[in-house]
User: Which sequence fits this backbone?
């Protein structure tokens, strides 16, 4: 029984919304609420583990649960990256290299263990754990890369988002026009959408004087949460319709109260 979302256009839209919300919500907890990077990382990593346990124990794919785990990896990844880069003073470049090494190690272990890196059909607990470990690391890596582009590269928030957006468009063109391995392209795109979300989150939250739009962490988080919630509801509806057998009625009878 497959327990992960199918990779479609709506998947990537929801992924970008979730990662951007993870950036703004993580900053809301660690900076706006002044909880700190270490404590925020502990809180958000705990929420990630709770949602992950629920996802692994589930017997079928549930869109709300799946995207909750994606969101918690994004928020936890934001504060974990900030803790590495700022509290431990590793810096964006060194922190990114460490995370790239960790991601490669997880993918290599996954490939050796399962003989596959399929992201469309996850049917064993071990494969699912590798899947979520890779997602957590890639989201943490994306935060570090996004912060590097926004703060140290000289591109600024809009420039960083434009660069990552261009790279994502290149991945789309490669997917359409070449036979390059689709699993490889998935992970390249998955990593790139995180810094895109990170820089886009900075663009939303920072003041106009800092090169942003000035919505703040609270306003940006509320906007993104509303968009993501609407997309999850739509995904749940379409998933139910797709699961109906041929000839079945599209409207289910009302459940008893």
Assistant:
């Amino acid at each position: 029984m497959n327990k992960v979302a199918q990779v479609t256009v709506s998947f990537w839209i929801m992924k970008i919304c979730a990662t951007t919300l993870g950036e703004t919500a993580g900053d809301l907890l660690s900076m706006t609420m002044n909880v700190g990077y270490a404590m925020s990382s502990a809180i958000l990593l705990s929420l990630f583990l709770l949602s992950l346990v629920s996802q692994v124990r589930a017997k079928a794919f549930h869109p709300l649960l799946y995207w909750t785990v994606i969101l918690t990896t994004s928020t936890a990844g934001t504060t974990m990256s900030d803790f590495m880069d700022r509290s431990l003073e590793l810096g964006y470049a060194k922190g990114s290299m460490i995370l790239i090494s960790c991601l490669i190690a997880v993918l290599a272990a996954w490939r050796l263990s399962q003989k596959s890196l399929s992201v469309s059909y996850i049917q064993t607990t071990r494969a699912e754990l590798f899947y979520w470990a890779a997602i957590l690391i890639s989201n943490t890596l994306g935060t570090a890369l996004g912060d590097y582009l926004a703060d140290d590269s000289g591109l600024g928030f809009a420039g960083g988002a434009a660069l990552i957006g261009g790279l994502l468009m290149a991945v789309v063109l490669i997917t359409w026009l070449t036979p390059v391995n689709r699993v490889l392209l998935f992970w390249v795109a998955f990593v790139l959408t995180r810094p895109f979300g990170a820089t886009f989150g900075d663009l939303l939250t920072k003041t106009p004087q800092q090169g942003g739009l000035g919505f703040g962490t609270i306003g940006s988080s509320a906007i993104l949460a509303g968009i993501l919630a609407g997309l999850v509801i739509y995904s749940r509806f379409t998933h139910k319709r797709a699961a109906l057998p041929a000839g079945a009625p599209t409207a289910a009878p009302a459940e008893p109260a």
Notes: The first helix runs from residue 9 to 32. The two ends are 29 Å apart (CA to CA). The chain has a mean pLDDT of 78.
